[in-house]
Amino acid sequence: MIVKTFKIVCALILLMSLNACSTVSGWFKDDVYEVPPTELTEFTQEFEPSIAWSTDTGGSNDIYSSLDPWLQGDAIIAIDYEGEVNSYNAETGKRQWRVSLDVPVTTGVGGGEGLILVGTKKGEVLALDASNGDLLWNAKLSSEVLAPPKAAQGIVVASTSDGRMTGLSAKDGQVLWNYQRTVPLLSLRGASAPVIADDKVISGYANGKVVALSIIDGKVVWEKSVAIPRGRTELDRLVDIDADPVVINNTVYVVAYNGRIAALSLDDGSILWAKEMSSRSGLDVSVADAAVYVSDEEGNVWALQDGSGDSLWRQTRLLRRNPTAPVVVGNNVVVGDLEGYVHWISRQDGRFTARVNITDAAIRSKPVVSNNLVYVSAADGTLTAFRIQ
C-alpha cells in the first residue's frame, strides 16, 4: 500500500512538472520564460500584406486550446470554446450561418461528406449540416476529443485523449470500429488530427508512432516509429506526435517532439528519409521547391531538402516566440507567433519579407491557404484573411 501511494505521489509530481514545462515552452503570450522571447528585429519590408477581411469568431480562454478554422467548399468555419460555430464565405468573410451548441471544446472543427464536425471536452462528436448548421446527430465517445474529426467515404474518424481512434457512420454517428494504443504515463497536451489519404487514416500518437488504418474497418495497414523514448525520466521520454501529418504525392511527412522529422511511404510506412528534430507545431511541404518547412521547439524555422533532410536554410530570429507550423504562400512561408504577429519568410533563403500584427493574442493554429487567400486564426478569435501577393 505504501509503495502504491508513493508511485501515485511521484506521478503527480511528474505531472505538475510537465504542466510547468508546457508553460515554459510557451503556448501563450503571458508565459514566463527563463529566457524571454527574442525581440523582433527591424528589416526592410518587401511588400505590405493586404488584408481581404477580418472578423471576431469568439476564441478561447483555454491556454492549451487551438481552435483551428476549417475550409470546406466556399466556406471557412470557426468555433469558440463554448461551442458557437460560425460559417463565413471564404472570399468575402460574410457570415453564412451561426449556431450555438453550448458545449465545451478545446479543438477546432473538422468536416467532410457534407458535414461540419465538432469534438467536445465531454467526449462527444456533433455533426452539423454544412449548408445551414443544423444538428444532424450526436455520438458519445470514450473520452475528450483533442483533434478535429474528419470524414470521407461515408465514415467519420475521431481521436480521443485515451489513445483511441473511432470510426463512425457519417449518416447517423453509429460506431463502426475502434482502434486504441496505450497512452504513456505522461504526454503533452494535444493530439495529432487524423488525415485521410486514399483509403487510409494516418495519425500520430504519444508513443512516437505513426499509424495507418483502413478507413473502412479500422484495421492496421502499417505502423512506424518516428521517435523512440530515451532518457531516465518520463519527461525525457516524451516523444508525442501532436503535429498533423501532411500527405503529398504518396508520401507522409511527420514530425515528433523530442524525436525526428521523417518522410514515409503512404503504401507501407517505410521511412524514405529522416532527420533529428523536435516540434509540436508542425510542417508544410513545397513540391515545386522539393522542400519541407518546419518550426522546431526552440522557435527556429527550417527549410529542409525533401529526399535527404539536409538543411537549406534556418531562420533563427523567432526563438522562443512559438512560431506556428509554416504554410507555403506564394514565394514565402507564413507563420504566426505568440504576440499576434504574422511573418512572411522567403522560401529562397529564409529572410523576412513582410510582417504584420493582427492582435495581441497568441497565434497557435497553422495558417490555412485556399485559392488566393491565406487565413490566420488567433487565440482571441481574430480570424484574418490575407490576399496572396
UniProtKB/TrEMBL annotation:
SUPFAM superfamilies: Quinoprotein alcohol dehydrogenase-like (SSF50998). Keywords: Cell outer membrane, Membrane, Signal. Signal peptide: none annotated. This is Pyrrolo-quinoline quinone repeat domain-containing protein. It comes from marine sediment metagenome. Residues 82-315 form the Pyrrolo-quinoline quinone repeat domain. InterPro entries: BamB, PQQ_b-propeller_rpt, PQQ_rpt_dom, Quinoprotein_ADH-like_sf, WD40/YVTN_repeat-like_dom_sf. CDD domains: BamB_YfgL (cd10276). Pfam families: PQQ_2.
